[in-house]
# Entry
Amino acid sequence: MGMKKTTLLFVFLITILMSTNAQIVFQENFNTTADGALPTDWTRFNVDGLTPYTSLSWVTDAWVCKTYGAITTKAAWSTSYYTPVGISNDWMFTPAIVVPTTYPVLQFTELAQDASYPDGYELRISTVAPTTGNLMNSTVISTVSAASNPAAEKAISLSAYAGQTVYIGWRNNSNDKYMLGIDDVVVKSLPANGTSILSLTIPSYVQVNTPLTLAGVLKNTGGVSITSLNLNYSINGGAAVTQNLTGLNINSLTNYNYSHSSVWNAPSTAGSYTVKLWASDINGNATFFSDTITKVVNTLTTLVMRKVVLEEYTGIHCQYCPDGHKIANNFKAANPNDVFLINIHEGGYSTPSAGEPDFRTSFGTALAGQTGLTGYPSGTINRHVFPPNTTTALSRSSWVAKGGIILTMPTYVTLDVTASVNTTTRLLTVNTTANYLANGPALNMMNIALLQNNVEGPQTGGSTYNPSQVLPNGKYNHNHMLRHLITGQWGDSIKVTTTGTSLQKTYTYTLPASINGVNLDINNIEVVAFITEDKQEIVTGAGINLTNSIDEISSINSMIISPNPAKSNVEVSFNINDNNDVNISIFNSLGAMVYSQNEGNLTSGNHTVNVNVSKLSSGVYYMNVKAGDNTITKKLIIE
# Structure
């Protein structure tokens, strides 16, 4: 059962529990209707007679049923995207419905599939069976200029038609838009008194001793206006803290923004606290109460904010994808230690033509499948759903703003990653450390992504939208390209997620010479690690750029940087096994070299070199000591 179905069922159950006079007289979710049809007792009228655009040839009538787009189960769809361009005039009507006599309401879900080209519609009602000749005699009860995106539930009072037999219709009257979806049509009577708590807006992680105002949204799910109620909350099942609200005027099926007048002061002791909030004594009647909303708040001595993991879905034939690359890289440059990029070549635009390289992976389709993306470039920020969206996919214009939100969100776990490559065996070793500052969910997943930088290849739109990445030979320089997921499609299980847990784990992967026929250059690799809740929410990330940073312990070892963190000068101590030419270099988190000094030919044994880092800005860097053909890398922090 889809989420929208589950949510609707939940609302029904709450309604039934709160009142015995609730009655559903009609409902249709279209799930059992054949593709291309409507339910047999519905009617449709294709008045415009226009031809849908080629890609929408499956829309063979005014309205047709199909599982399509952002509605995850079957719905009724109509289009206004025609060849040639024209204005839609497409109708569909329910069968005859006897409207309840007490607090009757129509509920349904609407969706404009493309938010940039939203279809509008008229909601109509007729007391006689609709025919081609009497359509315009029906009464308009609501006009919507642009349907919702993401999908939204609508509720319309039918009190003017109480006790009558009616036919309810939707008329798509849009001009050159796209697709309009209607689903979950219900006609029912409401209980007299009903309230549902829709949200409780308090952070999940706060610093100790923080005063918190309990606020959110409740909805009048009954037929009678709410003039008074008690708003209650409790902490860990303790005594209720009650506020009596009077002088209200919350009409039927409308929302109300509440804010409890008694502030809860988060305790001075770090821990987890369960907050419950509910409404009671609705309109002065002690037998009427709402559902209860519950949220766990974790108090921490010190807050640590999340890191951003931006997964960009791209392709070599996507004209605007280079603009996405530029936006993402600028965001990374502005937040070099807090933003990590993964470019996933996936979808039709990534399919190579004859003679072109194949940058796709076996993981891309499943990753994209859970995002709800409808175009390219598209991206997810920590696989987070940003309300009012219902999916994780975001257009490139919103990446920076949404990423900024993530950077202000506390996390319950920190992550550190180091990595090295043995150039002889091509063995990549990745070391991860996860430290839990507060209780996490029962299960987290550790993900290790292998990326490659400086990959030459074709790219439509490169010279127009990101010319700095076009090489002298005319090819495009691809970066942060996903080559492999070392921990598999959805990661490696972390089963102990309680406060104080420190989990250290090492992953190894032998780097093949090529993947999909594309050379895997060990001198241009990058590792991004991130922790997820199940397959979705990324709670934090970390990364290390190994571009030009290869570790071969057979000729160089025991490298130590002191002090670290540093401000002006550091001493680098290392041991080499043979006489070799030695070079010391420093790279920033973007892989750019910011320091290089050749130390000449040094004899085997221990050496200490002083390096002046006073000109480097604060941040995370990677210091390489190269002896002959081999390199060892250590992280350097500049304060």
Summary: The longest strand covers residues 271-282. The radius of gyration is 30 Å. The first helix runs from residue 3 to 18. Residues 1-20, 548-554 have pLDDT under 50 and may be disordered.
